[in-house]
Specification:
Layout (H helix, E strand, L loop, with lengths): L1 H39 L5 E4 L7 E4 L5 E3 L5 E3 L4 E5 L8 E6 L4 E8 L2 E7 L2 H5 L15 E10 L2 E11 L4 E4 L2 E2 L2 H12 L5
Antiparallel strand pairs: 1-2, 3-4, 5-6, 6-7, 7-8, 9-10, 10-11, 11-12
C-alpha cells in the first residue's frame, strides 16, 4: 500500500514538472513575440549589420533602419506585412517582415534579451515558407532544396535539409544519400504546408 502511494506521488510530481516545462516554453515564445512586436512598433531597438558587405553592427530603431545591398546602396525599410515562424526550430518564433516596395525581408530574432535583425533579399524564397519554418528556394529545372535559416549573433546562414535533382538522380536528407521515394515523400509533405 505504501509503495503504491509513493509511486502515485512520484507520477504526480513528474507530470507537474512536465506541464510546467511546457508552459515555460509557451511563455518564452509569447514573450519573444511581444518583444518583436515592440521592435516593429519602434519601441525597442534591434542589432543589425550596418552593411551587407561589412561586419560592423549597430543597435537601432526600425524607423532609422536602412536596408543595405551588396553594392552598398542604402534604402529606408518600410514594413508592410509580418508573420511569425520558427525558422531555426529552437521553439522560439522569428518575425519575418516584408517591405513590398523594396521586395525584401527583415527577419527579427529574439535571443538572450536582445533582438537581432537580418535583411534578406531573395523574396521568392521567403514566399515559399512553410509552417515548420522551412522554405524551398527557386533553383534550376529538376533541382529542389528544402532549407532553413541558421542564426549566430548577427550572422545568417542557409542550411539544406533536403535535396533532390531528378536530372542527376541525387537525393539527400540531412546531407545523407537517401532513396528517391523517401526524399520525394519528404518534399510532398512539405508542399502541403502553408505559411501561417
Amino acid at each position: 500500500m505504501k509503495k503504491s502511494i509513493f509511486c502515485f506521488f512520484v507520477i504526480v510530481i513528474c507530470i507537474t514538472f512536465a506541464g510546467c516545462n511546457e508552459n515555460a516554453s509557451i511563455s518564452k515564445n509569447e514573450d519573444a513575440k511581444n518583444v518583436l512586436i515592440d521592435v516593429l512598433e519602434k519601441k525597442k531597438p534591434f542589432i543589425a549589420k550596418t552593411s551587407a558587405v561589412s561586419d560592423k553592427t549597430s543597435e537601432q530603431l526600425l524607423e532609422k533602419y536602412h536596408f543595405s545591398t551588396v553594392d552598398n546602396a542604402y534604402y529606408a525599410f518600410n514594413p508592410a506585412y509580418y508573420t511569425f515562424v520558427d525558422c531555426d526550430t529552437n521553439g522560439i518564433d522569428e518575425m519575418i517582415v516584408l517591405d513590398v516596395k523594396l521586395s525584401c525581408y527583415l527577419i527579427l530574432r529574439y535571443e538572450g534579451e536582445k533582438v537581432y535583425g537580418y535583411n534578406y533579399t531573395h523574396i521568392g524564397d521567403v514566399k515559399k515558407f512553410k509552417t515548420d519554418g522551412s522554405f524551398e528556394p527557386k533553383l534550376k529545372s529538376g533541382e529542389r532544396i528544402i532549407a532553413r535559416f541558421k542564426f549566430s549573433g548577427t550572422e545568417i546562414e542557409i542550411v539544406e535539409e533536403a535535396y533532390m535533382n531528378e536530372n542527376t538522380n541525387k537525393y539527400f536528407l540531412n546531407e545523407k544519400a537517401e532513396d528517391k521515394q523517401i526524399v520525394k515523400k519528404y518534399f510532398d509533405a512539405r508542399c502541403k504546408m502553408k505559411l501561417k
